[in-house]
């Protein structure tokens, strides 16, 4: 699967939210951007969207999310 750049910037958030986001990302061992993108992917899957992975093919299969093309509900 070809990769594509995703630029997310310009959002202004409450300081407490920012601290909570950075803390959660740090505890998960990922960057805040990766944490947000993963959360968005989880929401897309829950809404019925299917794609082969986020950062690489089948990466969600490793964390219990269903891969693209699965006939089971997420």
Describe the structure.
α1 (15-28) crosses α2 (32-46). It is built from two helices and no strands. The protein has helices at 15-28, 32-46. By secondary structure, the chain is mainly alpha-helical. The chain has a domain at 15-63. The model has no long low-confidence stretch (mean pLDDT 82).
Helix content: 25-40%
Q: Which sheet architecture does the biggest sheet show?
A: none
Distance between the termini: 22 Å
How many beta-strand elements? Answer: 0
SSE topology string: HH
Residue stretches low in confidence (pLDDT < 50, at least 5 long) are none
Q: Count of DSSP helices?
A: 2
Instruction: Identify the overall geometry.
Output: globular
Indicate the structural class: mainly alpha
The value of Rg in angstroms is: 14 Å
Oligomer: single chain
Strand content: under 5%
Short description:
This protein has 74 residues and is mainly α. Helix content is 39%, strand content 0%.
Write the topology of this structure.
Layout: H1 15-28, H2 32-46
List keywords for this structure.
2 helices, about 70 residues, mainly alpha
């Amino acid at each position: 699967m070809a990769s594509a750049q995703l630029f997310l910037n310009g959002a202004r958030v409450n300081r407490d939210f920012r601290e909570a986001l950075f803390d959660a990302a740090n505890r998960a061992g990922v960057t805040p951007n990766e944490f947000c993108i993963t959360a968005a992917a989880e929401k897309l899957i829950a809404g019925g969207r299917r794609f082969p992975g986020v950062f690489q093919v089948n990466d969600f299969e490793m964390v219990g999310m269903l891969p693209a093309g699965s006939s089971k509900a997420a």
